[in-house]
Design a protein that fits this description.
Largest sheet: 8 strands, antiparallel, barrel
Oligomer: single chain
Number of domains: 1
CATH class: Mainly Beta
Number of helices: 2
Number of strands: 9
CATH topology: Porin
Order of helices and strands: HEHEEEEEEEE
Length: 207
Protein backbone atom coordinates (compact mmCIF):
# COMPACT_ATOMS: atom_id res chain seq x y z
CA UNK A 1 0.00 0.00 0.00
CA UNK A 2 2.82 2.38 0.88
CA UNK A 3 4.50 1.72 -2.48
CA UNK A 4 1.22 2.58 -4.21
CA UNK A 5 0.92 5.87 -2.31
CA UNK A 6 4.54 6.84 -3.04
CA UNK A 7 4.06 5.99 -6.72
CA UNK A 8 0.85 8.07 -6.86
CA UNK A 9 2.50 11.11 -5.26
CA UNK A 10 5.55 10.91 -7.55
CA UNK A 11 3.32 10.54 -10.60
CA UNK A 12 1.18 13.56 -9.69
CA UNK A 13 4.22 15.76 -9.03
CA UNK A 14 5.85 14.67 -12.30
CA UNK A 15 2.68 15.40 -14.27
CA UNK A 16 2.32 18.80 -12.59
CA UNK A 17 5.87 19.75 -13.61
CA UNK A 18 5.44 18.35 -17.12
CA UNK A 19 2.15 20.17 -17.60
CA UNK A 20 3.91 23.55 -17.60
CA UNK A 21 5.27 22.61 -20.99
CA UNK A 22 1.74 22.03 -22.30
CA UNK A 23 0.69 25.66 -21.94
CA UNK A 24 0.00 27.70 -25.02
CA UNK A 25 1.63 31.00 -25.99
CA UNK A 26 1.52 33.86 -23.52
CA UNK A 27 -1.59 36.00 -23.99
CA UNK A 28 -1.75 39.76 -23.71
CA UNK A 29 -3.74 41.10 -20.80
CA UNK A 30 -7.20 42.23 -21.86
CA UNK A 31 -9.50 43.42 -19.06
CA UNK A 32 -12.45 43.48 -21.46
CA UNK A 33 -12.26 39.76 -22.22
CA UNK A 34 -14.86 38.02 -20.08
CA UNK A 35 -16.66 34.71 -20.43
CA UNK A 36 -19.41 33.00 -18.45
CA UNK A 37 -16.92 30.15 -18.03
CA UNK A 38 -15.17 32.33 -15.45
CA UNK A 39 -18.20 32.11 -13.14
CA UNK A 40 -18.43 29.27 -10.58
CA UNK A 41 -20.99 26.50 -11.00
CA UNK A 42 -23.28 25.61 -8.11
CA UNK A 43 -25.19 22.53 -6.96
CA UNK A 44 -23.94 19.75 -9.25
CA UNK A 45 -24.95 16.15 -8.35
CA UNK A 46 -22.63 13.24 -8.89
CA UNK A 47 -22.06 9.50 -8.50
CA UNK A 48 -18.94 7.46 -8.09
CA UNK A 49 -17.16 4.37 -6.83
CA UNK A 50 -15.34 4.33 -3.49
CA UNK A 51 -13.05 1.81 -1.84
CA UNK A 52 -11.45 1.60 1.59
CA UNK A 53 -8.60 -0.80 2.40
CA UNK A 54 -8.19 -0.93 6.19
CA UNK A 55 -5.05 -2.24 7.85
CA UNK A 56 -7.28 -4.87 9.43
CA UNK A 57 -8.41 -6.18 6.05
CA UNK A 58 -7.42 -9.77 6.90
CA UNK A 59 -10.15 -9.65 9.51
CA UNK A 60 -12.65 -7.26 7.93
CA UNK A 61 -11.82 -7.39 4.21
CA UNK A 62 -11.76 -4.54 1.70
CA UNK A 63 -14.78 -2.23 1.46
CA UNK A 64 -16.24 -1.12 -1.88
CA UNK A 65 -19.43 0.60 -2.91
CA UNK A 66 -21.36 3.51 -4.36
CA UNK A 67 -20.55 7.09 -3.44
CA UNK A 68 -23.05 9.92 -3.85
CA UNK A 69 -21.59 13.41 -4.22
CA UNK A 70 -23.01 16.90 -4.41
CA UNK A 71 -20.87 19.82 -5.48
CA UNK A 72 -21.80 22.96 -3.59
CA UNK A 73 -19.53 25.08 -5.78
CA UNK A 74 -16.96 24.31 -8.49
CA UNK A 75 -14.98 26.25 -11.05
CA UNK A 76 -12.42 25.75 -13.78
CA UNK A 77 -10.54 28.29 -15.84
CA UNK A 78 -9.23 27.08 -19.16
CA UNK A 79 -7.99 30.52 -20.08
CA UNK A 80 -6.42 33.37 -18.15
CA UNK A 81 -9.12 34.64 -15.82
CA UNK A 82 -9.93 38.31 -16.40
CA UNK A 83 -13.45 38.22 -15.02
CA UNK A 84 -15.61 41.18 -14.08
CA UNK A 85 -14.48 40.69 -10.46
CA UNK A 86 -10.76 40.60 -11.24
CA UNK A 87 -10.29 43.10 -14.08
CA UNK A 88 -7.72 45.01 -12.06
CA UNK A 89 -5.41 41.98 -11.79
CA UNK A 90 -2.49 41.49 -14.11
CA UNK A 91 -1.78 38.05 -15.52
CA UNK A 92 1.25 37.53 -13.29
CA UNK A 93 -0.88 38.33 -10.22
CA UNK A 94 -3.11 35.30 -10.75
CA UNK A 95 -2.47 32.97 -7.82
CA UNK A 96 -5.77 31.14 -7.31
CA UNK A 97 -6.23 27.54 -8.53
CA UNK A 98 -7.40 26.96 -12.08
CA UNK A 99 -9.87 24.28 -10.95
CA UNK A 100 -11.50 23.61 -7.59
CA UNK A 101 -14.49 21.82 -6.04
CA UNK A 102 -16.23 22.10 -2.66
CA UNK A 103 -18.43 19.06 -2.16
CA UNK A 104 -20.30 16.80 0.21
CA UNK A 105 -20.43 13.02 -0.03
CA UNK A 106 -22.17 9.91 1.32
CA UNK A 107 -21.00 6.32 0.85
CA UNK A 108 -22.20 2.92 2.02
CA UNK A 109 -19.49 0.33 1.46
CA UNK A 110 -19.77 -3.43 1.70
CA UNK A 111 -16.94 -5.80 2.56
CA UNK A 112 -15.63 -8.40 0.13
CA UNK A 113 -15.42 -10.75 3.11
CA UNK A 114 -18.62 -12.62 3.96
CA UNK A 115 -20.43 -11.81 7.18
CA UNK A 116 -18.99 -8.33 7.72
CA UNK A 117 -21.03 -5.24 8.51
CA UNK A 118 -21.21 -2.31 6.11
CA UNK A 119 -19.10 0.81 6.47
CA UNK A 120 -20.86 4.19 6.32
CA UNK A 121 -19.07 7.46 5.63
CA UNK A 122 -20.25 11.02 5.19
CA UNK A 123 -18.39 14.29 4.99
CA UNK A 124 -17.30 17.31 3.01
CA UNK A 125 -14.14 18.10 1.13
CA UNK A 126 -12.35 20.53 -1.12
CA UNK A 127 -9.80 19.91 -3.86
CA UNK A 128 -7.64 22.31 -5.88
CA UNK A 129 -5.50 22.08 -8.96
CA UNK A 130 -1.78 22.77 -8.57
CA UNK A 131 -1.92 24.98 -11.67
CA UNK A 132 -3.65 28.35 -11.84
CA UNK A 133 -3.89 28.91 -15.62
CA UNK A 134 -5.14 25.75 -17.28
CA UNK A 135 -4.59 25.19 -20.97
CA UNK A 136 -6.26 21.75 -21.18
CA UNK A 137 -9.33 19.90 -19.92
CA UNK A 138 -7.68 16.63 -18.93
CA UNK A 139 -5.10 15.12 -16.52
CA UNK A 140 -5.03 17.98 -14.00
CA UNK A 141 -3.10 17.14 -10.78
CA UNK A 142 -4.96 17.91 -7.55
CA UNK A 143 -4.52 18.17 -3.81
CA UNK A 144 -7.20 18.53 -1.17
CA UNK A 145 -8.64 17.53 2.19
CA UNK A 146 -11.81 15.89 3.51
CA UNK A 147 -13.39 15.90 6.96
CA UNK A 148 -16.29 13.77 8.04
CA UNK A 149 -17.87 10.95 10.02
CA UNK A 150 -17.28 7.21 9.68
CA UNK A 151 -19.27 4.38 11.24
CA UNK A 152 -18.79 0.63 11.51
CA UNK A 153 -20.49 -1.68 14.01
CA UNK A 154 -17.29 -3.38 15.20
CA UNK A 155 -14.84 -0.50 14.74
CA UNK A 156 -17.13 2.18 16.18
CA UNK A 157 -17.91 5.77 15.23
CA UNK A 158 -15.24 8.37 14.63
CA UNK A 159 -14.44 11.74 13.12
CA UNK A 160 -11.94 11.47 10.27
CA UNK A 161 -9.67 13.93 8.44
CA UNK A 162 -8.16 12.77 5.15
CA UNK A 163 -5.42 14.58 3.16
CA UNK A 164 -5.93 13.90 -0.56
CA UNK A 165 -4.00 13.75 -3.80
CA UNK A 166 -5.37 12.87 -7.20
CA UNK A 167 -6.28 13.97 -10.69
CA UNK A 168 -9.09 15.67 -12.54
CA UNK A 169 -9.38 13.17 -15.38
CA UNK A 170 -11.71 15.47 -17.31
CA UNK A 171 -12.65 19.02 -16.48
CA UNK A 172 -15.25 21.25 -18.14
CA UNK A 173 -17.85 23.77 -17.06
CA UNK A 174 -20.65 21.20 -16.78
CA UNK A 175 -18.83 17.90 -16.28
CA UNK A 176 -16.09 16.79 -13.87
CA UNK A 177 -14.45 13.37 -13.59
CA UNK A 178 -12.19 13.15 -10.55
CA UNK A 179 -9.97 10.48 -8.95
CA UNK A 180 -8.77 11.03 -5.38
CA UNK A 181 -6.75 8.93 -2.93
CA UNK A 182 -5.73 9.46 0.66
CA UNK A 183 -4.99 8.03 4.10
CA UNK A 184 -7.67 8.80 6.73
CA UNK A 185 -6.71 9.97 10.22
CA UNK A 186 -9.34 9.09 12.82
CA UNK A 187 -9.34 11.55 15.72
CA UNK A 188 -10.72 9.11 18.29
CA UNK A 189 -8.98 5.81 17.56
CA UNK A 190 -6.43 6.19 14.80
CA UNK A 191 -5.61 2.48 14.55
CA UNK A 192 -9.22 1.43 13.89
CA UNK A 193 -9.50 3.33 10.61
CA UNK A 194 -5.88 3.42 9.49
CA UNK A 195 -5.69 2.44 5.82
CA UNK A 196 -6.06 3.68 2.27
CA UNK A 197 -9.08 5.14 0.49
CA UNK A 198 -9.75 5.80 -3.18
CA UNK A 199 -12.69 7.30 -5.08
CA UNK A 200 -13.59 7.86 -8.72
CA UNK A 201 -16.57 10.16 -9.29
CA UNK A 202 -18.36 12.13 -12.00
CA UNK A 203 -20.33 15.35 -11.44
CA UNK A 204 -22.60 16.91 -14.01
CA UNK A 205 -24.89 19.85 -14.60
CA UNK A 206 -27.53 20.56 -17.23
CA UNK A 207 -27.83 24.27 -16.49
Amino acid sequence: MHKLIVTLVIGICTLSLFSHGLKGPKREYSPQRYSDDDDPKYLMPGLGFATFRPNYRKEFGNYNGLQVEYLFVANNRNEIRNSKYFDYLREEDEVSPGSYRFYGKLALLGSDKAGQNKLFTMGAGVDFSFENQLQRNWAIPLFGIEAGFIRHKQLGNDFVITPLAGMRIFNSRNFYVTALAGMPFALGNYENYRGFQFSLSANFSTW
